[in-house]
Design brief:
By secondary structure, the chain is α+β, with helices and mostly antiparallel strands. The protein contains 2 helices and 8 strands; from the N terminus they run H-E-E-E-E-E-E-E-H-E. Helices cover about 20% and strands about 30% of the residues. The model has no long low-confidence stretch (mean pLDDT about 85).
């Protein structure tokens, strides 16, 4: 029997390369793939989930495709894991504690809904496409 968390992950992996088009030209891009577990990606996933405005500027992003540039050089020890999130086009990242695929989806979509609500944009998906590649 497949564990619920694994079922969510398998479902999520099917969305790799998918773009969800929203109202007034806003869009979401989902990228996720299995990789060999490492200190940077201990869960064995490489992902980037982003919300973009009509001009393509990132409004929100959760990912671990690269090492995060921290907000400050402070003295607090940093996790070797790459998991982080971005606010807007800000190059600085905030750490994100990856729990499982289900929690990642819930956290990302909660932020997407918050941003879209602030902008007065519907969260309804009006079209879906696959990334060329």
């Amino acid at each position: 029997m497949v564990k619920p968390a694994e079922h969510t992950l398998e479902f999520l992996l099917e969305f790799n390369g998918r773009i969800h088009h929203l109202d007034r030209g806003y869009w979401l891009k989902l990228e996720i793939e299995r990789v060999e577990p490492t200190g940077e990606r201990p869960h064995g996933l490489r992902y980037s989930f982003t919300l973009h405005d009509p001009d393509g500027a990132r409004l929100k992003g959760f990912g671990n495709a690269h090492a995060a540039q921290p907000l400050s050089s402070g003295f607090a020890p940093r996790s070797p894991a790459y998991d982080h999130w971005h606010r807007g086009t800000d190059k600085y990242a905030r750490p994100y504690k990856f729990v499982d695929a289900d929690t990642l989806l819930a956290d990302f979509f909660a932020e997407v809904r918050r941003v879209l609500h602030e902008l007065g944009i519907s969260e309804e998906v009006v079209a879906v496409s696959e990334e060329d590649g």
